[in-house]
Amino acid sequence: MQVLIVTNDLPPKVGGIQYYVDQLARGLVAAGDDVVVFGSTSPGAETFDATSPYRVVRRRTATLLPTPAVGRQVIDLIAEHRADVVLFGAAFPLGLLGARLRRRCGVPIVGFTHGLEVTAARTWLGRRLLRRIGSSVAALTFVSAWCESELQPAFGSGPIHQRLAPAIDPAAFHPGVSGARVRERHSLLDRPVVVTVSRLVERKGQDTLIRVLADLRLLVPDTALLVVGDGPHRAALASSAERHGVADVVVFAGEVPDADLPEYYAAGDVFAFVPRERRRGLEVEAFGIVVIQAGAVGLPVVGGRTGGVPDAVGAPTAGVLVDPSDDAAVLASLADLLTDPQRCRTMGEAAAARVASNFTWAGRTADLRKLLEALN
């Protein structure tokens, strides 16, 4: 199959959507498909493109927009590549090119959806634009059941709907990973450790974990919090740790290389991810790939009951869901797990088995190929 992917979200830019698009493109290549990716330019792009298993064509701009000039270049690439299908790495806003591509080229179009489309669906103009996209694409994919339920009214019932959640590489994320080196590196030793991994921005909920840590240590002595990731909220989080008297037991590990990430998850006893909605629902978590990465290495999860996070957690067997705005509930769930090692082990084993069965990139690529073959 000849596949053209049009996207702003591609490495070396860092982020969940970039990783998602790259992994699916690699999976299609591994399955024997001929893939070309058309994207925007970012620092380090030449190095990435030189080693990529798929061909990358970049327009000299930081952001692709659905302009006539971009549309002409996509049409030229469809003809040059003899594309059987066009995929938009994010349906909004580039999917607005869909009607023109369908008229000129006649190829089926698939749009991937993430959190941005949900944000658009919560505004009047955004809903109008999503309806235009929905009328021109053959299929839409959704990272969670929650995303699908939120977006279906906006896109309309015309396109085929396909669930296509993020996934993990089981060769990297598995229960055999050891966190011993990370514990030694950060002087965590034999302490109970709550680990959280995500970008340090206000809605991700690291502040909640810092607020409850002092009380958690009264219930589970010597507990430490390992915070992995970086971002604009780091200074505020460090100040919060000082105010709450836990600065000496909050480890800010910063952003770690992808190759080291499994060991950082494995350094924890429990994984916590309690993001919350902000700006009247305009900022919300669509899935939470960090949850399945943690589950894959065998950690039980305390996750926020918000957006698409419940799809990732797999409660009640693989994790616990809490109201992310309820500090007492977050505290109680963490304490319950940390004081019950057998429950931790059982839940962690269930999480690892669930992820291995349902959330691998090989399986996700097979799901995508089945959809694309149906369209052709």
3D structure, described in words:
This protein is an alpha/beta fold and 376 residues long. It has two domains: 2-167 and 360-375, Rossmann fold (3-Layer(aba) Sandwich); 180-358, Rossmann fold (3-Layer(aba) Sandwich), CATH 3.40.50.2000. Helix content is 44%, strand content 16%. Strands 3-2-1-4-5-6-7 form a seven-stranded parallel beta sheet, sandwiched between helices. The protein is elongated, with a radius of gyration of 21 Å.
What is the CATH T-level topology of the largest domain? Rossmann fold
| Gyration radius over CA | 21 Å
Distance between the termini: 9 Å
Number of strands: 13
Helix share, percent: 40-55%
What's the CATH architecture name of the largest domain?
3-Layer(aba) Sandwich
Number of domains: 2
Question: Helix count, per DSSP?
Answer: 16
Order of helices and strands: EHEHEHEHEHHEHEHEHEHEHEHEHEHHH
Strand composition percent: 15-25%
Q: Look at the structure and give the mean pLDDT.
A: 96
Weakly predicted, low-confidence segments? none
Structural class: alpha/beta
In short, what is this structure?
The chain is 44% helix and 16% strand. The protein has 376 residues and is α/β, with parallel strands linked by helices.
